[in-house]
């Protein structure tokens, strides 16, 4: 028994010696960075200029930034001058924030992010706003709890000449004139912003505004003609049935990203300067009950985009176009050179894509990006076709029968049916090559949702293009990327 214990002890000592000899990967690099006995008695990170250390700290929330003061004497006051402050009041108390701001020594703030819960007194918020404005903040992000609907910003906030980028949810209309002379990017979240005059106040007081993003702002008429520097516009509903502007006047906009609900689709006015557009519909299950209206509206919207060269359409938009194509509705001719479809490769969107290919005589590039979001319910579409006296089976016909419904594709992906999924991809490629007579490049992007089969399945996909009838010598690119 004693011999056995001695042998076991020897084995244990040998294992311990081997562990000590076996250094983990990256250990030398870590020692070189952090061991004071190397590089002249200090670590490499601490020798870096304050500008670099501040840049590193800008990626951290303020509670972690402050902890760096315990690293060494060199780090004790570095955080006090970091140009980026990121406060989450849901985790930090108002007292913590005030103490932090009292210790802050930088004369200028590049970025200030604040999430404000309901229990903070308004005078306290006023102090934080005054502090940010007094330090000439350039990038400001403010998010209030929905219960703070009565808070009014101090007038100095609306006169900040240093602001270049502003993001906030706004519930009250200011009583003063807006003067954001340096503002270039503005993001507004609000479902109570009905005041068209307030938007005009913003535009007149922001002469350099280039990018505007509105989320859930139900202004009746969004007239951007008085903001000549504006080039990018994004509009999204706050929720599926949320309202957006009823009329959008954008004479000088170059880029438009628009998501609208079926309840009240917008009218585009004077959009001849648009070069790029991204369109999607936030649709509830009852949306196809109004499909006649939707088809007319969607096709009118396409006709307005006469000068757009880069067009992105999302799943529901493509589904509406597919219904219009199956019903034989006329499509406008487009000048699009690059067309992107954010959709799954399913039956409900293919007729619309095929018609767009035929009605875009200058099209050079098609990009199909696989996504789960916002897919059309096939049963809703079939019910609508049936209500119009069109037999769904005949509508889909032999041209589209190879392609699966959304449910069929979901089952296919979950069960890792690589052969069946490869046939879907091949069928989609064949459809594109048949209809895209001027096409030069086809790009298919596969996110991890499509890549359940792993690298081997992707290698199988790479074997498909050489087997296709490709008389126009279209370059086919397959991309595999992860979300």
From TrEMBL:
State one Pfam family annotation: LRR_At1g61320_AtMIF1
Which region is the signal sequence? none
**Which residues fall in a compositionally biased region of kind Basic residues?**
11-31
| InterPro entries noted in UniProt | F-box-like_dom_sf, F-box_AtFBL13-like, F-box_dom, FBL13/AtMIF1-like, LRR_At1g61320_AtMIF1, LRR_dom_sf
**Residues covered by region (Disordered):** 11-32
Q: Which residues form the F-box domain?
A: 42-78
Protein name, entry field: F-box domain-containing protein
Source species taxonomy = Eukaryota, Viridiplantae, Streptophyta, Embryophyta, Tracheophyta
């Amino acid at each position: 028994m004693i011999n056995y214990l001695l042998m076991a002890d020897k084995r244990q000592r040998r294992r311990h010696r081997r562990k000590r000899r076996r250094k983990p990967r990256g250990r030398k690099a870590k020692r070189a960075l952090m061991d004071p006995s190397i590089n002249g008695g200090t670590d490499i990170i601490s020798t870096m200029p304050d500008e670099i250390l501040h840049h590193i700290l800008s990626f951290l929330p303020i509670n972690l930034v402050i902890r760096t003061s315990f690293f060494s004497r060199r780090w004790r006051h570095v955080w006090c001058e970091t140009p980026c402050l990121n406060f989450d009041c849901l985790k930090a108390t108002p007292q913590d924030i005030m103490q932090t701001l009292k210790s802050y020594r930088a004369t200028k703030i590049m970025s200030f992010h604040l999430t404000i819960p309901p229990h903070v007194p308004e005078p306290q918020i006023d102090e934080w706003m005054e502090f940010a404005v007094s330090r000439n903040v350039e990038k400001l992000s403010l998010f209030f709890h929905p219960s703070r609907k009565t808070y009014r910003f101090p007038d100095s906030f609306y006169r900040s000449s240093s602001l270049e980028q502003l993001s906030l949810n706004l519930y009250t209309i200011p009583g003063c004139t807006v003067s954001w002379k340096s503002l270039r990017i503005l993001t507004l979240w609000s479902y109570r912003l009905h005041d068209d005059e307030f938007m005009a106040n913003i535009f007149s007081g922001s002469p350099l505004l280039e990018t505007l993003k509105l989320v859930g702002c139900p202004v009746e008429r969004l007239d951007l003609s008085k903001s000549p520097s504006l080039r990018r516009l994004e509009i999204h509903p706050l929720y599926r049935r949320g309202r957006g502007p009823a009329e959008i006047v954008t004479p000088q906009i170059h880029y438009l990203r628009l998501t609208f609900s079926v309840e009240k689709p917008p009218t585009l006015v004077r959009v001849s300067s648009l070069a790029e557009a991204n369109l999607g519909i936030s649709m509830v299950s009852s949306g196809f009950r109004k499909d006649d209206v939707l088809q007319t509206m969607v096709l009118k919207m396409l006709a307005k985009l006469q000068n757009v060269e880069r067009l992105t359409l999302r799943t529901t938009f493509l589904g509406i176009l597919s219904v219009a194509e199956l019903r034989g509705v006329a499509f406008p001719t487009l000048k699009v050179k690059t067309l992107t479809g954010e959709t799954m490769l399913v039956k409900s969107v293919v007729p619309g894509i095929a018609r767009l290919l035929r009605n875009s005589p200058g099209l050079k590039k098609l990009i199909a990006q696989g996504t789960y979001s916002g897919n059309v319910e096939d049963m809703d579409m079939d019910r609508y076709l049936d209500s119009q006296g069109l037999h769904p089976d005949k509508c889909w016909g032999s041209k589209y029968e190879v392609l699966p419904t959304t449910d069929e594709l979901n089952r296919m992906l979950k069960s890792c049916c690589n052969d069946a999924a490869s046939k879907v991809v091949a069928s989609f490629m064949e459809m594109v090559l048949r209809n895209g007579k001027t096409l030069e490049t086809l790009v298919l992007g596969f996110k991890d949702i499509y890549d359940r089969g792993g690298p081997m399945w992707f290698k199988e996909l790479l074997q498909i293009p050489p087997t296709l009838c490709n008389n126009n010598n279209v370059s086919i690119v397959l991309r595999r990327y992860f979300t």
